[in-house]
Amino acid sequence: MSQKRSGYLSWDEYFMAVALLSGLRSKDPSTQVGACVANPQNKIVGVGYNGFPWGCSDDELPWAREGNYLDTKYPYVCHAELNAVLNSITRDLRDCRLYVALFPCNECTKVIIQSGIREIIYMSDKYSATESVQASKLMLEKSNTHYRRFIPERDSILLDFNRQ
User: Fold this and answer.
1) CA Rg, the chain, in Å?
2) What's the rounded Cα separation, in Å, for the pair 91 and 133?
3) Which end of the chain has fewer CB atoms surrounding its CB within 10 Å, N or C?
4) How is the beta sheet containing 146-149 ordered, strand by strand?
């Protein structure tokens, strides 16, 4: 009798990999963030990445990080978390988990909480000192929405399109 294969992806690794893969769709030259929403049955119900709203050309709006506010990407870009919620196949995201590369900003955190997502699994908290992330953490604690850092069990995952 055969044994099951070892070394397969854990659920956390799988969903974080989907989030990271989704981030590769972003056209942002400086920050590519992806997000994946998984329900309690471990089914993917939404994915998203950071980019401009539908109908807004990636070639006509600015991608700059600095300068006059209206000449930067910030007033125009939809974050990965927002897109994952908006792109979800269901409006009932109660008790779902959100996997995301960066800890969510305060605006995305409002959407996450309002949607019913109960846990955030993130990779990087490099903006932890910002007021936006501090506000996020306060709202998450007040709403009893859990968050934890993703700790990978492996360094990388290779996708080979030539492997059959």
Assistant:
1) 17
2) 25
3) N
4) 44-49, 34-38, 97-102, 119-124, 146-149
pLDDT tens track for 82-120: 999 999 999 899 999 999 999 999 999 999 999 999 999
Say how far apart CA 134 and CA 112 lie, in whole Å.
15
- Report the residue count for the chain: 164
Model pTM greater than 0.90?
Answer: yes
- DSSP assignment of 143-157 equals TT-EEEE---SSS--
Rounded to the nearest 10 degrees, the angle between the axes of helix 106-115 and helix 131-142 is 20
Question: Cα-flanking dihedrals φ and ψ of residue 100, to 5°?
Answer: -150, 150
Distance set, CA 3 to CA 6, 7, 8, 9 (Å): 9, 12, 13, 16
Cα–Cα distance measured from residue 22 to residue 53, given in angstroms and rounded to the nearest whole number: 16
Q: Which residues are catalytic?
A: 81
Determine the distance from the C-alpha atom of residue 21 to the mean position of all C-alpha atoms in its chain, rounded to a whole number.
Answer: 10
Structure token digits, residue 70: 């209206």
